[in-house]
Design brief:
4-stranded antiparallel β-sheet, single chain, mainly beta
């Protein structure tokens, strides 16, 4: 299947698989992050002696914003960097270069988030209440993938083919550096617990190589080679790595030794992160096909894949509708689909016109049932609230409608 797909500010045509790694390594990604970072919900943040549920997300191409989605005024709780302070921020001595934020904001402990920049390769820890920020690391290159945090250690993958482990309480010295990555990293690494090797960091690279590194010392335990590049996030469950590739195959890999357990062919590139629930793997490809496989065997759970009619890069959501679990997917063009997760049949398709701009970021559920909405961010930095069986999409940022503020994260109505 031929298609054009926006790749971090570069259109790509489908080429023979042997050319994919070369093309991805050479294609330009720049200071236009174009909506790749997923929103993050942090509940019960105390600001001015008041508890607020904050949504933290990339609001446009050069800033991270925190809002209360139930505030009908659209007030920014904080903005990083702060334009009112000449693009500085509380706690930082120097101006923060306004550049692209590709990776998702990542929690560090209970009171900070980590963000990495493409433009200058700096990683910052920002207090969730916006009271201050600090510089954690300067890679002297650039960061595309999300920074992975475990306790107080941050694992940073860079575009100069390195992974660095940093003690965020003492960031002056690196814990270790692995400098033999096969290629750049766009997909977010994952932490995994190995019986034989202890904790591992699983790092996918753009040439299709997957590296398993010991978090204790950065030593490489195994490598796996897919047939083409990997841009998807690594997802680990039950001793297996689940990940899709630009070779149109989806893989289940043993985290102990890196051997392939099973793989299945899709209809186009896999660029979504997998969702694993109750022994089933759900994933979507750029043809708009949504797949369900048995996590242990790779056997198909549905009679045929669901066709969403448009390219999908965002990870699916799973929500309850009474006894039925509903899989929710969002196409790049802004069409939402709800699917019976047991049968793969359509439950609902959003009746509103496809939304402006394009949607790449993973959605954020504000509850566990279809009575709760989910949030989606597009490449223009706009944040929308969508709910299964509701016939409109509400804009939460930057232009919320005062008559219809967005829903509280517990699904219990507006504040």
């Amino acid at each position: 299947m031929s298609h054009w797909f926006h790749v971090k500010h570069s259109p790509l045509a489908v080429l023979p698989l042997l050319l994919v790694p070369l093309l991805l390594a050479a294609c330009g990604i720049g200071d236009n992050a174009d909506g790749w970072a997923a929103p993050l919900l942090v509940p019960d943040v105390v600001i001015d002696e008041r508890e607020r549920d904050l949504i933290i997300f990339a609001a446009g191409r050069d800033r991270i914003a925190a809002i209360d989605p139930t505030d009908s005024t659209g007030e920014l709780i904080w903005e990083f960097p702060d334009p009112a302070r000449d693009n500085r921020f509380r706690g930082l001595d120097e101006e923060v270069p306004t550049g692209a934020f590709y990776g998702d904001p990542t929690l560090l402990g209970q009171d900070e988030i980590l963000v990495g920049t493409w433009s200058d390769g700096k990683v910052y820890a920002i207090r969730i209440d916006g009271s201050s920020a600090r510089l954690i690391f300067d890679t002297a290159d650039s960061v595309v993938a999300s920074v992975v945090a475990d306790d107080r250690v941050a694992y940073i993958a860079t575009t100069d083919k390195r992974v660095i482990a940093v003690d965020t309480d003492n960031p002056e010295e690196d814990l270790w550096t692995f400098d033999d990555l096969a290629n750049e990293v766009w997909g977010t690494p994952a932490l995994a617990q190995s019986r034989e090797h202890g904790q591992l960091l699983i790092v996918p690279a753009l040439d299709g190589t997957i590296h398993a590194l010991r978090t204790a010392d950065g030593g490489e335990v195994w490598r796996f080679q897919a047939g083409a590049g990997i841009g998807s996030d690594a997802v680990v469950a039950d001793g297996r790595l689940f990940i899709g590739s630009f070779d149109r195959r989806f893989y289940a890999i043993d985290i102990e030794d890196g051997t392939e357990i099973w793989s299945r062919e899709g209809r186009d590139w896999f660029w979504t992160s997998a969702l694993i629930r109750d022994g089933t793997v759900y994933a979507a490809d750029l043809a708009g096909s949504v797949w369900a496989w048995d996590a242990a065997t790779g056997d198909e759970r549905w009679a045929e894949p669901y066709d969403a009619g448009g390219a999908i890069r965002a990870r699916p959501l799973l929500m309850a509708d009474g006894e039925m679990l509903v899989l929710v997917v969002m196409t790049r063009a802004g069409k939402a689909h709800a699917i019976d997760s047991g049968r793969g049949t359509e439950v609902w398709v959003s009746p509103f016109e496809e939304l402006d701009s394009l949607f790449y970021a993973n959605p954020l559920a504000l509850g566990t049932s279809i009575g709760s909405p989910f949030l989606v961010a597009n490449e223009a930095g706009e944040l929308y609230e969508i709910q299964v069986n509701r016939d409109d999409a509400r804009e939460c940022f930057p232009d919320p409608k005062p008559a219809q503020p967005c829903t509280a994260p517990d699904g219990g109505g507006s504040a």
